[in-house]
Structures are given as structure tokens and as C-alpha cells.
Design brief:
Layout: E1 3-8, E2 11-18, E3 23-27, H1 41-44, E4 49-53, H2 70-83, E5 89-94, H3 96-107, E6 112-118, H4 127-143, H5 145-152, H6 159-164, H7 166-177, H8 181-193, H9 198-203, E7 208-213, H10 221-224, E8 232-237, H11 244-247, H12 249-267
Parallel strand pairs: 3-4, 3-5, 5-6, 6-7, 7-8
Antiparallel strand pairs: 1-2, 2-4
Length: 268
């Protein structure tokens, strides 16, 4: 599994490029990196070219000097696809990655073959959530990234899996520790400032997959399934919290494989 880097404006984006076929871009969540998808990728590369990207300020990608918005992260992906001469792709975004996928759909609708939000939402932050973003910014500023990640990560798993999947919880924590403090703060500000993008879901004509976790303590099912129309598939992963790619990877992989088959069919 070879890792590549690409300069995108003033930033450097790190990514893994595997497989041959229609392009699929996997976008991780907040304080994560491309390794979140380690159990899912082997299934998807059987019929697809899969790009697993580290977002700016996360993983092995660089951290920008200035704060950014969700749209800036989406434009990073557009520039990366340009550099690889990829005209169209299906985006699969987890949590923060879903917010970025929606922004990408807003900026580059003609470049999408499909879109999946995995434990994500088109709604903006509530006032309570915005307050929690500010608390997170203060905690990182005052205490550093490690205490913040220690508080954050266990809540991403269902209560049952938090206690039973100890190795996976530790795995996600170790990834989180590597997130730069400025990158995490920038992402918190970007998530806090993001607008409502339900109109994007309503207007998209390509196949869309919305994935929710039955035990998600971060984004409940009703916030994931915000739009109901003919081209939108809604799926609940049972016995999973916010991290189905690690809590129920086989179930998520099967759902994504089925969805991508429909995306291919829709282009024929």
C-alpha cells in the first residue's frame, strides 16, 4: 500500500491510491485519517480505483497557516482530482468528510458520479453544538490534543462497542493524537461555521447513499436521513455507533459495494 503526496495550492495532501476502475474517494472524519477505512478498502478496490485521502491538518497532510472553511477542504479534493486527471468520482464522506462531500457537490456537481454520507448530516450545527465546538477549541488550546482526543473518541463508538472493541478505540485514539492542534482547531471552526446544505441533497440527481448507525451518539438517524427522494438510499447499520467502518466493517463494506454497483449501472 503506497502513499502519495500532492501539492494543492499552499498545502500538501497525502493519499493512498489503489485499484482500477471508476474512482471512489474516501474522506475520513474529524481527528481521523485515511486508515479509518482499512477494513473497507479491500472490498471496494475489487472493482474501483479508491483514493483514501488525509484532509488538511490531519494524518500526513500539511496544516495550513490560516484557518479554513469546509469549502476550502472540498476545493483541496477538486485540485487533487485535477492533478490526477480524474474528471468524475463518487465521494464517500464520514462525519466531517460528509460535510466536505456536500460542499464538493455544491461547487462541482458535474464532477460527481455518486455521493455517500456515512454518519454525517446536511444540517448545520445547532447552537448547542456550536458551543461544544468552542469548548473543544478551548480545551485543545489550553491542554493540547491528547486530552481532547481522550474525551472525544470513546463517544464515537456505541456504548457496547466502547467497552468491547478496546483495540479499535485505542487505534482511533492513536490516529487522533497525530492530528495537529492547529488543524483540529481549524476543523472545529470550519464545522461550526458550515451552512445548511440540505438543498444540495434535494437537488442532486446522482445516486446518493445515507448511512446511519443504530447506536450513534453523535449524529442521530433523523439528522442523517434529512431528505427522502427517489435517488437517495437510506441505510441503518445495526449495532454501530459513529464508526461503522471499524465497529461493523463487513456490514458497511457490503452496503457501499451495493451502492457503487448502482452508481456504475446509472452511468451505462
Amino acid at each position: 500500500m503506497e502513499r502519495f503526496t500532492q501539492n494543492v495550492g499552499d498545502n500538501m495532501i497525502s493519499y493512498i491510491d489503489q485499484g482500477v476502475g471508476p474512482c471512489v474517494v474516501l474522506i475520513h472524519g474529524f481527528c481521523g485519517n485515511s486508515h479509518y477505512w482499512k477494513y473497507v478498502v479491500p472490498h471496494l478496490v475489487k472493482k474501483n480505483r479508491v483514493l483514501s485521502v488525509d484532509l488538511r491538518g490531519h494524518g500526513d497532510s500539511s496544516t495550513p497557516r490560516d484557518c479554513c472553511e469546509i469549502t476550502d477542504m472540498a476545493m483541496d479534493l477538486g485540485s487533487l482530482l485535477d492533478s490526477l486527471q480524474i474528471e468524475r468520482a463518487t465521494l464517500i464522506g464520514h462525519s466531517l468528510g460528509g460535510y466536505i462531500s456536500l460542499a464538493f457537490a455544491e461547487i462541482y456537481p458535474e464532477r460527481l458520479t455518486g455521493l455517500s454520507l456515512v454518519h454525517s448530516t446536511a444540517y448545520p450545527d445547532s447552537e448547542e453544538a456550536k458551543g461544544n465546538r468552542d469548548k473543544g477549541i478551548n480545551k485543545i488550546s489550553n491542554e493540547g490534543i491528547v486530552p481532547f482526543v481522550n474525551d472525544l473518541i470513546p463517544k464515537l463508538f456505541s456504548e457496547k462497542n466502547e467497552s468491547e472493541l478496546i483495540n479499535q478505540v485505542d487505534f482511533v485514539k492513536k490516529i487522533g493524537y497525530k492530528t495537529s492542534e492547529f488543524g483540529a482547531i481549524g476543523a472545529l471552526k470550519a464545522m461550526k461555521n458550515r451552512p445548511d446544505r440540505n438543498h444540495i441533497l434535494k437537488n442532486l440527481q446522482v445516486p446518493v447513499l445515507l448511512v446511519a448507525g443504530s447506536e450513534d451518539r453523535v449524529i442521530p438517524i433523523d439528522k442523517v436521513f434529512s431528505v427522502d427522494k427517489g435517488n437517495i438510499q437510506q441505510t441503518v447499520i445495526e449495532d454501530s455507533g459513529h464508526m461503522s467502518m471499524l465497529e461493523q466493517p463487513e456490514k458497511l463494506a457490503a452496503v457501499l459495494q451495493n451502492f457503487l454497483g448502482n452508481v456504475v449501472d446509472s452511468k451505462m
